[in-house]
Each structure stands twice: as C-alpha cells, then as structure tokens.
Amino acid sequence: MHEQQLLTEMMNWEDDLKQDNRTDIQLTVTKWINHGMSQIPLHAKQTFYKTFDTLIFHLHSFIQNSAVQEDTRKQIIITAKAINEEINDISDLHQLPLSQLIFLAENQTSKQRLYSFVQGGVTGIGGILMSSIDIPAQTVINLRTVQSVAMCYGYELKTPYEMMISLKVFHAALLPKHLQYEQWCKLKEEIRDRDTMNYFYEGKEKLTFTTDAEFLLKQIAKLSAISLFKRKLLSGLPVISIMIGASMNYQLTRQVSEFANKFYTYRKLVEDN
C-alpha cells in the first residue's frame, strides 16, 4: 500500500517536472543565455566542459574518500542498526523497507540543507574571500548531499557505475526546473537498461552541457546581489545580503536533495518489483 502511494506521488512529481512554468522574463533570460553561448567558439566550450567534468570527477572522489564522508557513512549505518541490528554495511541497507530508507535520507539531507543555509549566510556577511569560495562550497555541499542520499538507499559509491550515476543525478539536480525532465528520463533509462552484474559504467561519461551556463549565471547574479546590498546595514549587519545568500543556497540544496531522493526512491521501486 505504501509503495503504491509512493508511485502515485512519483507520477504527480514527474508530471509537474514536465511543465514549463517559466515567466516571460525567465524565457527571455534563457534565450539570451543560449544566444550568448552560441557566440563562443566550439573548441573553447569543449575545453571548458572537459576541464569542468575532470574537476567534478576528482572532487567527487576526494569527498567520497574524505574523513567527513566516512563519518557520514558510519552515522548512516549506526542509525540503520538501531532499526535492524543486522545492518553492518551500506549494502545491507537494502534489507530495510523503503519507508525506512526514505527516513534515513531525509535525516541526512536536512543536515545538508542546514549547512547550505549557514554557508550562504556567512557568504552574505563575509568579504571577497567568502564570496570567492561560495560556488566551490556549494558544489561540495550538494555533491555530498547526493552521495549521502545514495548511501542511505544502500548504494556504495566506490564502484565506477554508482559513481557515474550519482554524478549524473548531481548534474540533473542542478539544472533549472524546465531542463530537468529530459535528464530524469535519461536516468530512468540508465537503471532500466542496466545489467545488475555490471561493475563498470558503460554509458556516456559526459556531464556538462551548454544548459549548465544558466546555473552558473544564477550563482554569479546571487553574488552580485549580495555585494550590492552588503553596505545596507541593520544593527551593524548586512541583513539583506545574509538573507539572499542563506535563502538561495538553501533553496538550491533543497532542490538537489529532492531530486536525488526522488531518483533513488524510484530506483528502489524498480529494483524491488
């Protein structure tokens, strides 16, 4: 009964994802971005995309093998063990009912949203240094968010296949809403066509596309707005800048965590049936 309810919720969410609810201003901005990107030489774009993909691959590996992520792995296992004493590793989480896996994932993503909120607020207070590390910090937080969600559903990201799937989920989750549906459908095809015995990833490893420019421009616009309102103080604090940084970063991580949760919930539903 619970799985049927989840499937209904998933279908409703997917229907919403299909809808293009952009305003005229947003459509104009998208058109301007596409026009601007078309003016950049193809070889320059390809070099940028290849470099960005390489950086994300290395960053993913670094985070996954870091002490912080190892602590997260242990916390997930300890929490799961309180539910079922037979849980000793991430792969053992497949023994738990889907409702309990969703609970574990929500518990982890709530922490990531808080980190993102605080980090955005600090960016609103800080100077050039804090602004310069905002985008890298957001990349790390949101990568960790996807990794944590994947582990909560029992997927060990140290295998090439799971690493690539999590990176594609991360990429899709960062896209503007009107571009997510296409990537969602591709992710669904990935897991449907997968050979369950396959350890390595055999699909396309390209992650970055022209559409990612909209995400980067939004981040630049956020930092510009923070800089603009930084001198407007209330009780000695740039309250407006703090609110802009905290709210926008929180909303981004909320979007990423929602997409990741939906994907891994859908994947478990497919694999269990």
What would you note in describing this structure?
There is one protein chain. This protein is an all-alpha fold. It has one domain. It contains eleven helices and no strands. Helix 4 runs parallel beside helix 7 and helix 5 (98-125) packs antiparallel against helix 7 (134-152). The longest helix has 34 residues, at 239-272. The relative contact order is 0.15.
Distance between the termini: 14 Å
Q: Percent range for helical residues?
A: over 70%
Major β-sheet profile? none
Shape category: globular
Question: Structural class from helices and strands?
Answer: mainly alpha
The count of domains is: 1
Radius of gyration: 20 Å
Question: What average pLDDT do the residues reach?
Answer: 84
Q: How many DSSP E strands?
A: 0
Number of helices: 11
Strand content: under 5%
Question: What are the segments in which pLDDT stays under 50 over at least 5 consecutive residues?
Answer: none
The string of secondary-structure elements, in order, is: HHHHHHHHHHH
InterPro entries: EcsC (IPR024787)
Protein name: EcsC family protein
Pfam family, one: EcsC
